[in-house]
Amino acid sequence: MNPSDAQHAPSLATQSDSSVPYNLHHAMLDDRKAQASAAYALRFGEPGFLDATKLYIEQVYDGYTAEDQSVWRELYERQEPHLAEHASKIWLSGARAIGLTADRIPNLASINANLRPLTGWQSRAVGGFIAARPFFACLARREFPTTVVLRPRRCMDYLPEPDIFHDVFGHVPLHADPAFADFLQEYGSAALIADTLETERLARLFWFTVEFGLIRESGELKVYGAGLISSPGESRHCLTSHEVERRPFNLEEVCETKFEIDHYQPTLFVLESFEQLRDAMRSYANTVRAAHGSNAPKSGAILRSGAIA
Ligand SMILES: [Fe+2]
């Protein structure tokens, strides 16, 4: 079994060291800025290292080669027919709304020009994995840290880290949906102030929704999680396999369900709507804020100041 033909949860990876993946040169990265971003991310949360905007780099679009464009097209076209039938209508309409096409690797500036008027979300370029806390700070600002490197052809089916196909094709279309958009900001805002136990629970929530979520639409199961959307193998397996248990979404149950990353998911959770997810998250976020009292930064303050404190 493919251990992971999805690249998921970059934010929820174990606190990374400075070696991934910034030690690799990519033409679509400004290496100097990428290194500075990585160094800042490692210290994020310390005094003087609280500005999420310092994590962002430029997408050097001219750095993508004809081979990169070809890889993108192939990745896109092999998923498109399956998703047209089996992806959430919210993902499908979001992909159209932000201007995703098979023809070319997305330019984040263009994606953002389409996305901002819809929900205020933006995709901001990063070099690769960033740790949990800075990732949450970005989400609280309605900004999605977006990997701009693209996998090489030899890794079409397996990449242990996120790339632009996973991050933009997989994640960003849902950011055009108002309910999902509000859920994700609420998630980031709560996760930013969560303690260790809560962070572990929230990691599970992220996993079973943002990465591997299913939704029921007009009586049919559809995929919406980015780990499923961007995975040719698991996006089919999750809907058809008798080995997959598909449970109704319940936030408390999700938060208590452990997961493993090295095989197809044996348990998935099914939403009835993204409003259900948003409302459950709001309720949970309120309990997190109540537990942390005045220490909790307010998401409005984050949005205004561009920093978390
Ligand atoms: Fe992901």
Description:
With 309 residues, this protein is α/β, with parallel strands linked by helices. The protein contains 13 helices and six strands. Strand 1, helix 5 (132-140) and strand 2 (143-147) form a beta-alpha-beta unit. 49% of the residues are buried. Residues 1-24 and 296-309 have low confidence and may be disordered.
Provide the succession of SSEs: HHHHEHEHHHEEHHEHEHH
Number of domains: 1
Distance between the termini: 44 Å
- How much strand? 5-15%
Q: Mean pLDDT, nearest integer? A: 86
Backbone CA Rg: 18 Å
Q: How many distinct beta strands?
A: 6
List the strand order in the largest sheet: 4-3-6-5
Describe the main β-sheet briefly.
Answer: 4 strands, mixed
Ligand list: fe (ii) ion
Oligomeric organization of the protein chains: single chain
- Kindly name the structural category: alpha/beta
How many DSSP helices? 13
Please estimate the helix content. Answer: 40-55%
Poorly predicted regions:
1-24, 296-309
What is the name of the CATH class? Mainly Alpha
Topology of this protein?
Blueprint: H1 31-43, H2 66-86, H3 89-98, H4 108-119, E1 122-126, H5 132-140, E2 143-147, H6 164-171, H7 178-193, H8 196-211, E3 214-217, E4 220-223, H9 226-229, H10 232-240, E5 245-248, H11 251-255, E6 267-271, H12 274-292, H13 299-305
Parallel strand pairs: 1-2, 3-6, 5-6
Antiparallel strand pairs: 3-4
Helix pairs in contact: 5-7, 7-12
The chain binds fe (ii) ion.
